[in-house]
UniProtKB/TrEMBL annotation, chains A, B:
Signal peptide: none annotated. One of its GO terms (molecular function) is lyase activity. The keyword Membrane does not apply. Keywords: Lyase. The keyword Membrane does not apply. It comes from Bacillus aerolatus. It comes from the Bacteria. Belongs to the D-glutamate cyclase family. Coiled coil: none annotated. InterPro entries: D-Glu_cyclase, Putative_hydro-lyase, UPF0317. It is an enzyme of class 4 (lyase). This is Putative hydro-lyase F9802_10030.
């Protein structure tokens, strides 16, 4: 098996572009930041950019392409967001229509690509800090929940904050708050800790997205704002065309995780 | 003399709206964040928002109004950015034409207001940390310099990063880096320390904006990205109409300085 973990981001992107890689990107180019993708037409771009600016915790923008440009100049100038993601999803009028490995045929001259930070970036330092991540231990997707915390509206975009949850001991929770505080540009510190009902989660064993994980005796749930929020909110407004990455099939940038920490 | 220092932000804004206050806002509503203002028409708003997103250190956005709305809903929902700043500057086609205390007559339905973080917010914790601020000691404006550090271009907006400079002892410089790191949303940590020539400053005694200050024996200059950058860059593109606050005449928000720290 090829050792994707130690390959450079541009090498991985090259394999993705050739469609030699079409699966999930977790663990590839270790140490480099992976990003969520949302592509919208220019008519929605100002409102969506404003939405992200007003809601930086769930919508941490790493890069926004110039309208019509498919190069994310800030985080990987030689990349092509039409081809360098293993799997895309196409949504028309808010309805999922297709999964594809190349969106060149869908690209239009007024499209804007939004690259958003992802929790992979802060999970690495958590693990290196000795904090076990339950959904990784249980080899499933992180549990995600809609909350009663409204995002700040911007133009046509509005909706609830989605959170991801990681259960841990109380001591680890304190350390996790410290560690993720260092990364304000990839969700930052948790937005809630301890009582799911306070943020509108009725049943912690029934996530709205992802998979349920075990919460052990003596552990508390820790909630971070989640990058699913902007996609969910964008879909609600039913744009004529919206393209995203498929879950787990992320964009691998040239930016080292550590570059995103403020200290 | 009225004690403006301990008045609430909405009380000060009310006096400004009545034009009972028309002077600089330094020291008013102590502990609450003051902001720079740039108003542009919608046609420039996406590019300018993108410029700020790409250059967060010189252009730390605290709020952006909905097109046509004069209420900065995130930082002071009941405020009116047409009236609640003591003095405005009007620029037509990139040329300064007028100073005024109320811009209601200039307001158009497609205007967008950008409120940007200001170094007042991090100077307070520096002073409280025992670090003397030279331009405050010398009762003048902070020295600012154009550098050879290009901002990331966005649409029509491009130009050099402008920095502000505060000289201090080497020990204080270390502490100042720690303190301002806590405030990534108001310029954050310095972008250079020590050698002005490395960032394209030929003569430290001749600032491009503001006033020169004394640099004492054994002190080093510490440079922060400066909120003058976005205004300077916007002007270079000669928008048909642009409105800003007059220097030192800031918008006083309802947000406490400490709210902007990440730890």
């Amino acid at each position: 098996m090829t050792n994707y973990e130690n390959m450079a981001p541009n090498e991985i992107r090259d394999l993705i572009r050739k469609q030699d890689i079409t699966g999930p990107t977790a663990g590839m180019s270790k140490g480099f930041t992976q990003a969520n993708l949302v592509i919208l037409k220019k008519e929605y771009a100002f409102d969506f950019l404003l939405f992200c600016q007003r809601n930086p915790k769930p919508c941490p923008l790493l890069d926004v392409t110039e309208p019509g440009s498919f190069h994310p100049s800030k985080i990987a100038g030689d990349a092509d967001i039409r081809k360098d993601i293993p799997k895309y999803r196409i949504y028309k009028d808010g309805v999922f229509t297709e999964e594809t490995t190349d969106i060149t045929e869908y690209w239009e001259d007024d499209m804007v690509g939004f690259l958003l930070g992802c929790s992979f970036t802060f999970e690495t330092p958590l693990i290196e800090g000795g904090i076990p991540i339950r959904h990784i231990e249980e080899n499933c997707n992180v549990p995600m929940y809609k909350t009663n915390i409204s995002c700040e509206k911007a133009g046509v975009f509005e909706g609830p904050t989605v959170v991801s949850m990681r259960p841990m001991t109380h001591e680890d929770a304190i350390r996790a708050i410290q560690i993720t505080t260092r990364f304000p540009s990839v969700h930052g510190a948790p937005i809630h800790i301890g009582d799911p009902s306070q943020i509108g989660i009725a049943d912690i064993s029934k996530p709205d997205f992802g998979d349920a994980v075990t919460i052990k005796e003596g552990e508390i749930p820790v909630f971070w704002a989640c990058g699913v929020t902007p996609q969910a909110v964008a879909l609600q407004s039913k744009p004529s065309l919206m393209i995203t990455h498929a879950p787990g099939h992320m964009f691998i940038s040239d930016v080292r995780d550590e570059k995103l920490s403020v200290l």
